[in-house]
Structures are given as C-alpha cells and as structure tokens.
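Subject: mismatched residue count in predicted assembly?

I count 406 residues in my input, but I want to confirm that the predicted structure covers every chain. Input:
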Amino acid sequence: MMLFDGGRAPNPRRVRVFLAEKGIEVPMTSVDMGAMGHKAEAVASRNPLRRLPVLELDDGTILTESIAICRYFEELHPEPALFGRGALGRALVEMWQRRIEFNLFQPVSFAFRHIHPAMKEWEVPQVPEWGEANKPKVIDFLALLDKEFSSREFAAGDAFSIADITGLIAVDFMKPARIVVPEEFANVLRWYRSIAARPSAAA
Amino acid sequence: MMLFDGGRAPNPRRVRVFLAEKGIEVPMTSVDMGAMGHKAEAVASRNPLRRLPVLELDDGTILTESIAICRYFEELHPEPALFGRGALGRALVEMWQRRIEFNLFQPVSFAFRHIHPAMKEWEVPQVPEWGEANKPKVIDFLALLDKEFSSREFAAGDAFSIADITGLIAVDFMKPARIVVPEEFANVLRWYRSIAARPSAAA
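Triage response: the counts match. Full output below for your records.
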C-alpha cells in the first residue's frame, strides 16, 4: 500500500498521528501541498476531489477521507482501540469525534481559509465575513469542552481516542488561524498539553 | 430509551430513515423545532449544543450526533449492515458517508441557512455571500457523483448504506435550499429516485 501524505496540513497529520499511536508503519509519498501538489495528476487521478491524504491499496483500491483511512487501520490493527470499545463506547467516540470535528476543527479551518491571505488561491471565493463568524463558534465550543474536561481526562471518556486526535489537530490549526485558547479554559489547556506531549503528536 | 426527534429537519430524519431500514422501533418524543423547541430545557439539559436528535438511554447516558446514534443501533442490530461489511467495506462506507456529508449535505445546508429568510434567527450572522458560494460546490459534487453512479447502484458499492441515507436527506434538503439537480445528471437522478422510493424514505 501507499499513503499519499500532505505534510503540515491537518487531515494528513490526523492519519500520521493515528498511525503513530497504533505503531503502524506505512510507505508514504510526500506531496508538496504548498506547491499545489494535491491538484496535480498523481493525486487527482486517485482522488477526484484533489485532497489529501489518499491511501492506495495493493489492488489499486483508493481510500480517501482521513477518518475512513484511520478506521481501515483500526479494523486491521484493533489494538490499542482508538475508535472505542463496545457498542456504547464506539458510539461515544463517534459522537465526540463529530462534535469536535464540526464545532472546533471546521470553524478553525473556515477562519483560516477565509481570512488568511495565503489561502486566496485555495478557497475561492474567500468570504472574510464567514471566516470572522467562525471565530466565536470556536470559543463557544472550547467553553463547552472546558466543562467536559473538568470531569474526565480524554474527549470521549477515560481512554485516548480518535476524538482526541481530531482535537489535537484542531487546536494546533488555531495557530495559523490566529485564534488563541483563552487562559481561563484551564481544563482544555491541561487536556491539550497532555495530548500534545504524547510522542504521536510529533508525527 | 427515548429518542428526541426533530420532525422535518434533516439530521433527525437521517436517524428515522436508518431505524426504518433496520426495522427498529424506538420510543420518540417530538420536539417542535419550528417553535425553537430544541433551544428549550428538555433538549438543552441533555445536549448543550441544543441540537437534535438526542438519544437518552435508560441509564441516563446521552448520545447525540445522528451518525453516532445510527452507529449505536448498528452495533446492537447488525443486520442489515448499513455501515458496510469487513474492514475495507466499512472504510468505503465511511469514505462515501463523509464525502457526501462534506461535499453535498453541508454545502446544501449552508446555502439554506445563510440565504433563506426563515433562517435569520437560526444562523447568526447569516452570510448570504457564503450561502451563494456553496451552490456551485453542490453542483460540482453532483457531477462527480454522476460519474460514480454510472458504474454502481449505491453510494458506497453494491449495497445500500448510511452513505445513501445521507445522500437522500441532502438531495431532499436541496428543495428548501432552492437548488435543483440538473437533468443532465441522469445517474444521480436514477439513484435518487430509487432510494426515495424505498419505504424508509417516508420516515
């Protein structure tokens, strides 16, 4: 198999952090997204949406969408379980993965893509008003998360999961989006520092 | 258990269609979203995000996010499998569920929420320019889907899945969003008519 990777972009990183947590090594081809490599033939012929990451299996089957790629590896290598354990555990991981994706990662991405000058060619048209509208959504959701983290260690319960990985890439993406976690959210900061200190975060 | 349902809104409907496909009956409480019932205490005390659907289990555990609720029922009642079969099958369903969610359902929702006058209190601030920017995204993705459906019957392969349910609610949501499937997308229209004709679509 071959994983077409996109460097610093958050979705490719989500898969690399996941693989590092699992201890799985996968052959990788680095695509230079800064040079728009994801729009070139090597990616476009495999993913008509021209996005990364892309996993190509040995029989030519293509998997895209970072979470779908992670779920495939979860099925092949169930331990450590990063999508939860048992019916309810897996549902709770799904819930928190989606809550964090839609209420933190996406608003951060919209703020970055619709405001940052470097994104002019990437997000057409940029709608700065929409970017700005997303910044308070980020803060509102961090307030909710801060209450949640007052009573547990990880996003979906007592075990680290894919929901924490989505949280990690979202908070790290706040830097280029120029949004800061308010110091008053002490529980969020404790959680973030603990997951950012895991070896996988360097992936 | 109790499912707090939101009537015509697409996410509550996604769960009802799923349950109908599974043949599962769940006690339901109808919440009048038109009267902002999802902002009232019965929902807000269970879901701080004040959205529907919400599933409350007998022990008081709360599950939100339509896909998380569906996944919970998939675990309890595996047949018919609506999240795919086998490692690769499940990954492909995840891929298509996400592709359709992010590239069809979400752009349709943004077009509706940011343009429709009835959504002024729901989406604050409305950014009409962002709503308009999403309309061509919908058409572009339908063009991609039309090619896909030239060689297979359902979104994620030869079996009906949650990805088709997300597609159904997305296409039906195009009506209030005032976006029409172009007649030239004959494969999309054939697929849509076949899933809209299933008894579950009336849920």
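The first helix of chain B runs from residue 10 to 22. Marking this ticket as 'not a bug'.
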